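Q: Hi! First time doing this. I have a protein sequence and I read that you can turn it into a structure. Is that right? Here it is:
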Amino acid sequence: MLLSGGAGSRLWPLSRESHPKQFLQLTGEQSLLQQTALRVLDAELFEPLTVIASAQHRFLIAQQLSEVGVQSPTIVLEPSVRSTAAAAAVAALLVSRSDPDGLVLLAPADHRIRNVAAFRGAVRDASAAAADGYLSLFGITPDRPATGYGYIRLGARLTETGRTHQVAAFVEKPDSATAGSYLKSGDHLWNSGIFLLPVRTFLAELERFEPELLGDARASLERAAHDDDFVRLEQKAFDRCRTVSVDHAVMERTDRMAVLPVDFDWTDVGSWSTLAEMADRDISGNTILGEVLSESTENCYIRSEGPLVATIGVENLVIVATPDAVLVTRKQQDQDVKRIVDRLRSGKHGRL
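A: Yes, that's right. Below is the predicted 3D structure, encoded as structure tokens:
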């Protein structure tokens, strides 16, 4: 199941509500959605693709999947924004219809993973714990003290010889010093947000912790309308679903959680500084995309989708220009782009 409901607000002004980051070609010739779909296009390991997404993106999703050869996907349309717990509930309910003991892979559609073979191998490795009833999470081995990711503290191994561990604790995004201590400890992983879930266990835990949400998700799915290739969830029931992440709703509360340490070159493309770290740079440390002139400029990410951008004597900046908006921020403050988006959403400026 690909989760494609995010807005990507920290990549404004390129990522917009009508065309968020998962549909953009940020890291290659294919969009993040297309890259994610191709990773799970293996008939020996995965069932045919299902995408859960906003109704307003339905034709864009269908077009992008068709462009990379994904045939007859199931596209489930959310009538409103309700975070990931509601989407995960719908995904598990869908799988349970055909296989109550099945496994569902929840994969956000806005991640980059370079080593597809290693990713598929991790899915195979995690399936053993999932088949034993553990909600299995892929934990990324950190290579730097990142402050933009949540962390997981490793617990005891599930078996003496296996690689899968119990989850000792979920940790929110830390400050720089704390992230550094996590890196040195060797017992903390980044939370990738990619889960392999046995639907029987997951639905039981939802019933335990979020019974109203599960009931509303079930009602919305049972009353869904089928329109060509789309499954339209019924709005009244779906609107009643609590807006909460699957992490807060279940994963941080259950005692059936496991984590598999993996290293498949993963990146959550969630900010401009992250994108800058991934991009090629010139001799001055700059990434230049589009029509840009720079003088005495160092360690900047400069991208123009329209007007000429000229810089003189600046460093460590992110500058992104589109035909109707320009963003300028220090790399260290790019997480605050969401605050600008929140102001745009509450004001009369438009440009969302």
